[in-house]
Structures are given as structure tokens and as C-alpha cells.
Design brief:
alpha+beta, S16 Ribosomal Protein, Chain: A, 5-stranded mixed beta sheet, 2 helices, 24% helix
């Protein structure tokens, strides 16, 4: 089973206050499908944007063969 580390949409749809979870998902699962692990969150609506991640869990998933999306990779690069 191929696993992706990606963003999962959360928050209220009505006022467009979207925030995102950083999650590990099976590759063929949908964007809002069942998650294997919640690794952090990202809220771009706040000024400055709030970003929190468990780097140990991400490294553990990458060691198991999970791949990060480009968006998650760029967020992690900015966080370092």
C-alpha cells in the first residue's frame, strides 16, 4: 500500500475559514478519506499563518516509504 503525506481540508465551509490537517493517507483514498495518522495542521487564514507538525512522525512515515506532496514538502522547508 502506497502512502502519501498530504493536506486534508478541514474547517467551516460557510465562511471559507479553511484550515488543513497534514495526514498520512493511502494513495488511492480520497482527499477527505480515512486517515492513517494525523501529523500536524496548517491554518493559512491567520496572520501570520499557523503551522505545526510532528517531525518525528513524518520521518517515521518517510522511513516506511511514504511520499510527501509538493505542498507539504514546501511547508516543511519553510518551517525549518
Amino acid at each position: 500500500m502506497e502512502v502519501r503525506i498530504r493536506l486534508q481540508k478541514a474547517g467551516k465551509k460557510a465562511n471559507k475559514a479553511n484550515n488543513y490537517r497534514i495526514v498520512a493517507l493511502p494513495r488511492h483514498g480520497g482527499r477527505d478519506g480515512r486517515t492513517l495518522d494525523i501529523l500536524g495542521f496548517y491554518d493559512p487564514a491567520k496572520k501570520p499563518a499557523v503551522f505545526s507538525v510532528n517531525k518525528e512522525r513524518i520521518n517515521a512515515w518517510v522511513a516506511k516509504g511514504a511520499r510527501m506532496t509538493e505542498t507539504v514538502r514546501s511547508l516543511l522547508k519553510k518551517a525549518k
